Every structure is written in C-alpha cells, then in structure tokens.
Amino acid sequence: LAAAVAVVVGVGIYFMLSDINKLRKEVSELENDLIGEKKLAAKFLEKADQVAYVESWLSDQVDWLAELNELSGRLPNGEQATVRRLTASASGKIANVDLSLQVAQQENIAQLEHSIRSAKYQATSQRISQNADASEYPWQFETHISFPVETPQREAYVAESPVTASEATEEATVVVEPEAETSASDKQESP
Length: 191
Fold this sequence. Notes:
Shape: rod-shaped
Order of helices and strands: HHEEHEEHH
CATH architecture of the largest domain: 2-Layer Sandwich
Strand content: 15-25%
CATH class of the largest domain: Alpha Beta
Oligomer: single chain
Number of helices: 5
Distance between the termini: 75 Å
Radius of gyration: 37 Å
Number of strands: 4
Largest sheet: 4 strands, antiparallel
CATH superfamily of the largest domain: General secretion pathway protein M, EpsM
Structural class: alpha+beta
C-alpha cells in the first residue's frame, strides 16, 4: 500500500512538475511576446510623435514667397524706397514681417504704410529718423507687419490613393523568370 501511494504521489508530482514547466515555458513565451509588443508600441509612439510634429509644422507653415511677392507689389519703386533689412517669422496663427526701409522723401513713409495696410495686413511704424548725410534716401524707418497664417492646402501633402501593405509588398517584390533561375543554377554547378 505504501508503495502504491508512493507511486501515485510520484506520478502526481511528475505531472505537477511537467505542468509547472509548461506554465513557466508559456510565461517565458508571453514575456518575450510582451517585450516585442512593447518595442512595436514604442516604434508606433515614435512615428505618432513624428506625424504630430509634421502636422504642427504644416499648421504653422507660411508660403513666404507668395506673401513677399504680395508685399513687394505694395512697396514703392526703387527710386522712392529701398529695403535695408527684412525679418520674417511665424508663431501660431500669426506671421510677422519686420522691414527696415530707407525712403527718398518723408511723404513716402505714410504712402508706404497706407499701401501695405489692408484687410489682411496690419502695419505699424516703429522708428522714423532722418540722416542728413544721406543724399539719395535720407529718411529711415522700421515697420512691423502682421497677418494671419492661412491654412495650407493639405491635398498637396497627401498621397492620391493610400497604399495598402499588400500593394507595398507587391511593389517591392522582385519577379525572377524561370529561365533566369535555371541559368543561375547552371552557373553555380559549373566549375
């Protein structure tokens, strides 16, 4: 009887140990899967951060060439005024242009500000001074121009049709003709 109990206990312990080993193996596999999933999640978070950064950049984007072209059309000709310095910046939904100009006559300052001001552009003069030694452009002034940033056309940055993973795989797949495989294997076999 004791031998039978010992055998039953031994068999029970054997099955319990094998179950424990199976569970340990399963836990180990699940931990490895978890590590892989965490790495994948980290990559997705990194890509999501990059997308958020690009979207933020696009929302603050200003078409400076178009804006400067429009502003230059509002400035007087080169005989009446010249631009000494131009600084442009954008923050949030407002873009700013600071101009340092020299003009031939004091009246050109008011004329210039009037031609810049519109429903879109707000202009304010900051400094006006006269340089008696300058013969061509004796009047110098600085003006600050601000205007709202227009939302860019997102269609310019979006693919015409989204590419699925299977399409991307198909595009990346290299097709090898059977003849090419045969000739390649023939080359390998020949000494």
